Amino acid sequence: MRRAHGPTSTHTQRIALALAGATAVLGIGSLASPASAATADPGAGPGHGQAQTQTRRQGPELSTFTVAFPAAPYRTHNIGRAVELINGTVVAPGETWSFNRTVGERTEENGFVDGIMINDGRYVKAAGGGVSTVATTMFNAMFFAGLRPVEYGSHSFYIERYPEGREATVAWGLLDLRWKNDSGHPVEIRAQSTGTSVTITLLGTKKYDEIRATQGPRTKIVPPGKRTATGPTCEAQTPLEGFDVSVDRVFVQGGHEVKRETFRTHYTPRDEVTCVPEPSPTGGPTGSPTATPNPSTTPNPGATPAAPAPSNSSAPAAR
Q1: Angle at Cα 234 formed by Cα 231 and Cα 240, nearest 5°?
Q2: Which of 29, 131, 204, 224 is 20 to 30 Å from 87 at the Cα level?
Q3: Given this model, what pLDDT does residue 61 score?
Q4: What is the pLDDT of residues 208-259, one digit of tens each?
């Protein structure tokens, strides 16, 4: 299970263990700062508790990050709605920004539609699918801005369009994406999306000259298995190995490395899933199986690490 940077108190460890049990049932991958997750307030509505302004602040660009995604009506819609709710947020010095608090619950009432998510280690149809693309983009923008991650978690298995060990997902009421503005100055979030990409830019005052990312090789490789599934929520799934990966975030000042953080992520294998028809009461099939291809395997042309300490699981995690 992912751990927050630095030493962890006994109390924090107990909370982490309790949350680990929940994520193992629900299906989320590595989790950062699990103690923070236990105290998060996902019940607050969009923007609630966040410093926001209608006046565009001007300032240096701390970072910008773009994630490309395969076009799909549900994905484009949900990503666009999340971007609409995030864009223009201003995070005051010392304040913690929360994805769940800003975007709100991914419901029809809040402007979201059903899409594809990961549950119990496989793709299924569920509400709010696609918003993890925004979470991954935000995580990377935060990472290269040199800001401090407070809570985040990876997908249970690796999705090829995201940077290895440098992606994030969210699950309402269970997992948030949160980061603290420890720059000493206000940070404004600029977010925009197209039918195939989302970009997040953070504006503020730079604390470091440069933030670099270095990635290690895959280790502890585990081959995938095979499964069959039935029902209207079944989605066919291609196999991919599970593995561990480490990424370093390197802080550079005056041309010299002044600090380094290592993030470790554990991915479970992505089993091959075949959808089969449900048997009818008379013993015959009731119809053709649902079988939707997996997302594009084109890797995201960006770099951004982040994910301390590995963990196992599977859950309703938006992709």
Answers
A1: 150
A2: 29
A3: 95
A4: 999 999 999 999 999 999 989 888 878 888 999 999 999 999 999 999 999 9
pLDDT confidence of residue 7: 34
Chain centroid offset of residue 161 CA: 12
Pick from 168, 158, 78: which is nearest to 121 by CA?
158
Classify residue 109 as exposed, middle or buried by CB count within 10 Å of its CB (0-12, 13-18, 19+). Answer: exposed
Closest by CA position to 123, among listed 277, 290, 235, 231: 235
Query: Which residues are within 8 A (CB) of 193 and not within 5 positions of it... i.e. 6 or more apart?
Result: 76, 79, 80, 83, 134, 199
Average pLDDT, rounded, for the chain: 76
Residue with tokens 């263990």: 17
Alpha-carbon torsion, ordered 198, 204, 210, 212, to 10 deg: -30
Interacting residues of 161 by C-beta distance below 8 A, sequence separation 6+: 67, 68, 69, 70, 295, 296, 297, 298, 299, 300
Rg (CA), the chain: 19
Helices (H), the chain: 10-26, 34-39, 73-86, 99-103, 132-145
DSSP character for 294? P
Residue 131 class from Cβ within 10 Å (0-12 exposed, 13-18 middle, 19+ buried)? Answer: buried
Within 10 angstroms of residue 288's Cβ, the number of other Cβ atoms is: 9
What are the residues whose beta carbons fall under 8 Å from the beta carbon of 162, sequence distance 6 or more? 67, 136, 155, 300
